[in-house]
Amino acid sequence: MSRRRTVAVVTPYYPPKIGGVEQYTARLAAAVAADPGMRAVVITTRLDGGLRTRVSTEDGVLVVRLGAWLKLSNTPLSPLWPLQLRRWLRRTGADVVNAHAPVPGLGDLAVAAAGRRRTTVLTYHAGSMHKGAAGSGAADRLIGLYERAVLPRVFARARHLVAVSPVSLADGRPHAVRITPGVDTDRFTPGEPASRRPRTIVYVGRMDRSSAWKGVDVLVRAFARLARDVPEARLRLVGDGDALPGLRALAAELGVAERLQTPGALSGEALADAVRTAAVLALPSLTEAESFGMALVEGMACATPLVGSDVGGIPHVVADGETGLLVPPGDPDALAAACAKLLTDGGLADRMGAAGRRTAEEHYAWPRLTARYLELFRDRSASPH
Questions:
Q1: Lesser CB count within 10 Å: N end or C end of the chain?
Q2: Residue 240: exposed, middle, or buried by beta-carbon count in 10 A (0-12, 13-18, 19+)?
Q3: Domain extents in the chain
């Protein structure tokens, strides 16, 4: 009997931190652990800023959390990682390294540390990470240098590339395949038709100042506009981050503070319930950094109609006029009008919600997506570079 293959999933962040990449990697680790021929190991970073490595077993998966010496924007860094990655890949007997980016650093180093004998699979989750905001010139120059000079070398070294959407910088490369994020269609299930739900618009995602490209402030401004015409409407921002106090202050300035709900980060059934009881799910992102938008497929699975920006990967997920409505990024008037339309046209909202559920079942259920990963992990050829 051949020994089980050990797959090391290397990701900058991992649950309990909540986010799309974190859910994606947790689902992969669980699929590997459930396969009788494989064993899962996760190598990630500590969330508390500690310097020492911590090791634990979480849901049957060995999780190694490396310390970080500093953090630049949303990027943890440590000069010890090259040595630590080699040590832990050797100690765990890793046969396969599945690294996740775009946060520079850990994923890139993991592909290099894997060497030539291990199968390397690099999953790239974003388009260009250019922020394009006022005051981000220096950061954008560094990002541009990384994307032009470093990233192509990392892509070339990986045996397999996975692009999560057509917008991913890995998409279209000769050795790339496309495997989108998915959704647990048994947990994210429809509730009442959207027309019979409370008039709540929900946003699910992080709200960090370094992630201003998520456009949550645009959503708050849009809500203030539609609130005058839909007096029973409420806005619910699900998630945490250092931008949240500023968003609350903006809502107060615009006179809608009492209609804003901020329950913090939710997970499991609490998150599913927040999505299935909303009348609209909005994703107001501003740039191609939003290469997919996992909250969108969670909304579809719950038969919740969508409103999203026509940017990045969002139009590849939201079928405009079928599962939701697309609006120009950064346009609070257009965003307000689209949300108001779904809040006031119950027939349209119900049709879009039902179409979304069908799409989630047919294209985004996790088992068919993780099965494709397991095939890549079974590849016993090493990197050709």
A1: N
A2: middle
A3: 5-182+365-377, 194-363
Residue 45 near residue 63 (C-beta atoms within 8 A): no
pLDDT tier at 358, thresholds 50, 70, 90: very high
C-alpha–C-alpha distance, residues 86 and 105, integer Å: 14
CB 47 within 8 A of CB 55: no
- Three-state SS for 136? coil
**Omega within 30 of 0 (cis) for the link into 328:** no
Strands 200-204 and 306-309: unpaired
Contact 300, 306 (CB under 8 A): yes
The pLDDT mean for the chain works out to 92
Check residue 44 and report its DSSP letter.
E
Note whether 313 and 127 are within 8 A (CB). yes
Which region holds residue 169: left if phi is over 0, alpha if psi is between -120 and 50, else beta? Answer: alpha
DSSP state of 129: -
**Which of the four pLDDT bands, split at 50, 70 and 90, describes residue 363?**
very high
Superfamily of domain 5-182+365-377 in the CATH hierarchy: Glycogen Phosphorylase B; (3.40.50.2000)
- Extended strands (E) in the chain: 5-10, 38-45, 54-58, 61-66, 70-72, 75-77, 96-101, 119-124, 160-163, 176-178, 200-204, 234-238, 260-264, 280-283, 306-309, 324-327
pLDDT band, very low/low/confident/very high, at 71 (cuts 50, 70, 90) = confident
Kindly compute the dihedral angle of the four CA atoms of residues 226, 228, 233, 239, in this order, to the nearest 10 degrees.
60
Across 29-49, b (16+ Cβ under 10 Å) vs e yields: bbbbbebeebbbbbbbbbeee
Class of domain 194-363: alpha beta
Does residue 294 carry a pLDDT above 70?
A: yes
User: E strand or H helix at 25, and its extent?
Assistant: helix 20-34
Instruction: Note the residue count of the chain.
Output: 385
Q: Name residue 43's beta-bridge partners.
A: 10, 64
Q: Are the C-beta atoms of residues 281 and 271 closer than 8 Å to each other? A: no
Write the secondary structure of 176-199 as one string of H (helix), E (strand) and C (coil).
Answer: EEECCCCECCCCCCCCCCHHHCCC
